[in-house]
Amino acid sequence: MIYTVRTQVGQESMVVDILAVKAKREGLELYSMAVMPGLKGYILIEADNENTVQRGISGISLVKSRGVVSGQVKIEELGAILSHKPLMENIKPDQRVELIAGPFKGEKARVIRVNDTKEEVTVELLEATVKIPVTTKAEYIRVIKE
Q1: CATH code at 133?
Q2: Is the pTM of this model over 0.70?
Q3: What sign does the CA torsion over 24, 30, 36, 40 have?
């Protein structure tokens, strides 16, 4: 059965690491743990029962782990989260984006060209004095909603 544990946003991986060590040390039957990129502030844990999950998170700082969400998660409910969404289908020319990695991290830009086969995007930085095209991996950008 799959259970959901609420955590501080950004601390999901740390909670999973702490739980893995604790489960091994105390022999808790936590079969798997998952951090889902689209599910901020939550981790998914596969275990026999909720009590095992409760014992696992007990003693972990309340700042990092905030408790088990009551009830089980059905596999069917995870379909939307687990389904593969092609990275390139959301990116179109003339969209405004933000660079989230690389040397221009935090800069806003406009998409000039999209290369689906290489999963690369050529952008033009909006606040640059000289408009120079910059090619970056598509995973390094985030589309800004307007």
Answers
A1: 2.30.30.30
A2: no
A3: negative
Per-residue pLDDT tens listing for the chain (146 residues): 888 888 888 888 888 888 899 889 999 899 999 888 777 888 888 988 888 888 888 877 655 666 677 677 777 777 766 666 666 778 889 999 999 888 889 999 999 999 988 889 999 999 888 888 999 998 889 888 76
Residues 16 and 55 in one domain: yes
Q: What CATH number should be reported for the domain holding residue 37?
A: 3.30.70.940
Question: Residue 62 is encoded by which pair of tokens?
Answer: 């309340």
Distance CA 59, CA 52 (A): 13
The beta-carbon contacts of 113-116 under 8 Å, at least 24 apart in sequence, are 114/88, 114/138, 116/88
Range of the domain at 49: 2-82
